[in-house]
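Researcher: Next sequence.
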Amino acid sequence: MNAYDKGHELARSLKESEEYRTLCAAKRSLDTDPAARDMVKDFLRKQMALQIELMSGKPDAKEKEAALQKLVELLSMNVRSRDYISAHFRFHQMMADIYKLIGDAVGEGLDFFAEK
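Model: Next structure:
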């Protein structure tokens, strides 16, 4: 079994997945509404910044979390943005699950810094 062949097979499977097709359709729909698209971009940027802050241990994220929640409520009022955000989260959850599967499979060789 060639890992590269399996990697190409995985890439094809991802591209053909329902989650990816739904994400692409939602993106095409979102692109027809520039205002909603800009709000989604703003939301995703703010969400990523908040995640980085939380991972780096910054303690004061409550205000940013509340602002992000209000933005989610605004986005949910627009069908295109709501559908895109939903598809985006489903696709990224699938990707996170796959990364975990791969990491678990080869974790022994990558645990150099793990405490023993």
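Model: Residues 89 and 114 are 30 Å apart (CA to CA). Residues 79-110 form the longest helix (32 residues).
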